Amino acid sequence: MKSVILPLLAVLILTSCATVNNMHNLREGLTKKEVIAAAGNPNGFHRNGEYEALQYTDLLINNWSIFSGLSWSRTDYSVILKDDQVIEYGPGKIIKNKQNESPYTLIQKQY
Prior knowledge:
Elements: H1 2-16, H2 32-39, E1 44-48, E2 51-65, E3 69-82, E4 85-96, E5 104-108
C-alpha cells in the first residue's frame, strides 16, 4: 500500500504546480473566458472602466542551460484586457498609470 501512496502523492504535487507553460496558448484578441480556460483562474485582478488586468503570481519556470543544467525559478505573469479582449500579456507586473489612454502598463520581466 505504501508503494502506491508515494507515487500518487508525487503526481498530485507535480500536477498542482502552476507553470508558465499554461501561458503559451495566450495571444492578443482572446476573451477573458478564453484566457481563464487556457491559464486557469488568476490570483488577482484590477478593473478600470473598459480595461481589466489579470495577475498570475509565482508561476514556475523551468530553464535549461549548458552551464547549469535544469533549474527552476518563479515569476509573475500578467494579462491586460480592453473590452474583454487581450491587448497585452507576458511575464512581469502591471502598474497603474495616472493619466494615459490605458490605465495599466505591463512591465516585462527581464531574464
